[in-house]
Structure of NAD-dependent succinate-semialdehyde dehydrogenase:
Amino acid sequence: MDRTNPATGESLEPIPDDSEEEVDAALDTATETFATWKDVPVTKRQQLLANAGDVLRENKQEYGELMTREMGKPLSAAVSEVEKCAWVCDYYAENAAEHLQTERRPGPAHVEASVSYEPLGPILAVMPWNFPFWQVFRFAAPHLTAGNVGLLKHASNVPGCAQAIQEVFEEAGYPEGVFQSLVVHSDEAESVIEDDRVQAVTLTGSARAGRSVAKTAGENLKKSVLELGGSDPFVVLDDADLDAAAETGAQARTLNAGQSCIAAKRFVVHTDVYDEFLDKFVSAMDDVTVGDPTDEETDIGPQAREDLMEDVHEQVQQTVEEGATLELGGEPLDRDGFYYPPTVLTDVPRDSVAATEEVFGPAAAVFEVEDEREAVEVANDHHLGLGASIWTRDLDRGEEVAHRIDAGMTFVNELVKSDPRVPFGGVKDSGYGRELAVHGIEEFVNKKTVWVQDADGNEEDVDVTIE
């Protein structure tokens, strides 16, 4: 795997790919390990996960620096990401047993009916580069603790992060083979999904990648969970706190250099407050400091790859050609590395690139709407449906609007975020299935009905033999 430091454009030491033989051996190891790991008491698995959280905290600076080198995340944000990974370990270390507890179901007097939650086996996780530790740990923490074993196919520009994550679990005391990183390219993932030793797959990535993974998994009748892209609306109603909305909106658009599926991308603003909000928002975006990701004063670093920077710029240019007005930014920075500035577009046509595609960089499209009804219409006018943020001083109104937005997650007076305590995922082309909370840990388990009946029992009132 070739690597490039996006802050400087300089090459990093490459990491050797795994051979076909090494991948095959890893799959064998996963299968053999699962045979014993699934029977390890959940309390023991929880303790090992707590250990992993400790390892993360002890090495957060080292892991943060690795992320910064490989994909350009500001160091302070990278360290915070490691701390969040420790948090998800803490959450499932405390709650997994309760989430997986056998559930008693009603039945006749002579029957004990229950549902047990039993692991499936080796699970493949195909993960992206933008949150190279967090995306992996929100998969691994619940599903290893449920008794599955994990195989990671990470993005090709963060192989060092992939290796470091495997080392976290090893240092925490997990048996060999419970979590393995496969250093392979994307075109090799299909054969791993098809392999009989892999029982299910989860992907975080683009809608295009999701369709490919879902097709392969479906053809092989394997469970899949897809967390795909987003073009999240940020709805500012006429009674919003405009200072808070503008400040949080700038943060929501530029977090991780705008390279986040749950970043606010389309700003839908009521006409009565449009001009005032726009002034505040442009000012807040202009105040964002772009620079060296190792500098504590930096808010956003470079785009993770040169081609990604070029993609964002092309989308901005095309949207302007289609009739939008450029209020701020709009040109790559003239410096080493792959830097794109905070950018604001107004008068954005509803059928333009910035309105219809996901813009994976710090460029915001702002739309003016006449009323709440039109705000909801514009918010829902997209093939993606991951998250949404609604801003209003009337909390009842905010909650009512939140239920009218086509999204997997809606936040009132807050940016969209992931939290171990609540489920994460989308609708429409943003994918299916959920991560985190109890809903996430249940995705890769066999919800097995167990019916235990007294041999002398007899149920006369209903014929239950018909399928």
Remarks:
- The mean pLDDT is 96.
- The longest helix spans residues 75-99.
- The first strand starts at residue 3 and ends at 4.
- The chain has two domains: 3-228+430-450, 232-412.
